[in-house]
């Protein structure tokens, strides 16, 4: 009995060893197969793409930051400042312990007036600068000192920030998108135009201006310093209401003149309107004129209406728009093309 038991043990051990070895080999093979498996990289159609979980953060690139063209749908984003925006900035001021008295700010580290800055540039060419033949090697677009100290920002009788107010009112009143086309008559140094150029697709902002200094400020300072040269606005010098240089294979969604028509002879304004009416999108396109419309009202109410109608234009109403940053409002008069 004992001998039979010992004999059974001698036979079983090799079998057991072989079984364990086989199991280990199978397990190693299985683990290798699993490690070499790659998950499915199938693409989902838009309608069946899996939704991100609540904790997932989706990052998008802002076209205004990247320099890419803003698509049409981006043009429908909110333009003007909301009540929540105002409350947010007030909270930030309070949270940082800032105590700003009305119209009083402590001067900076090295306070300089514009006149002093210009004197420094003229006499010393800045704090650090290249001399001699090296001076032109490091400046791709040399800019006059008067523009660098932004003297042209004081040419309008009101704060430069008012340009943003005008843009917000006109863009929202005209329901503009990034694909819209805009013409400004008398764009000056782009106090308003900069905001349209930034908002619209490249080449969709056109501008007509007669003053050389204003055009120099726009092209040599404002567009480069704001990073907007890639938007390629079409800026034309002229004062005779000749719009042929802008081309004719499109129509404008908005044409506006800010404090321009009141400085022009009435008949020249009518010549301009006659030339522009066929360049304005029928029905939806808008013409806005600021301050007053004496070129029309001096004819008398009925005659004014008749002359507008003879051009295919109609007067839609008078609007006022408040400034965001200072105690000021502007008056705007709205017109449209009522027939194709």
Note down, in words, how this protein is organized.
With 340 residues, the protein is α/β, with parallel strands linked by helices. Helices cover 37% and strands 12% of the residues. The protein is built from eleven helices and seven strands. The chain has a seven-stranded mixed beta sheet. A hairpin with a 6-residue loop joins strand 6 (313-322) and strand 7 (329-337). Helix 6 (162-173) crosses helix 7 (193-199). It is extended and about 110 Å long. 21% of the residues are buried. Mean pLDDT is 80; it is low at 1-9 and 36-75.
Uncertain runs with pLDDT below 50, 5 residues or more?
Answer: 1-9, 36-75
Question: How much helix, percentage-wise, in residues?
Answer: 25-40%
Q: On the 0-100 scale, what is the average pLDDT?
A: 80
- The number of helical runs is 11
Structural class: alpha/beta
Largest sheet: 7 strands, mixed
> Which of globular, elongated, flat, extended, rod-shaped describes the shape?
extended
Number of strands: 7
Strand content: 5-15%
Radius of gyration based on Cα positions:
34 Å
Q: Distance between termini? A: 117 Å
Order of helices and strands: HHHHHHEHEHEEHEHHEE
Give the strand order of the largest sheet, numbering strands 1, 2, ... along the chain: 3-2-1-4-5-7-6
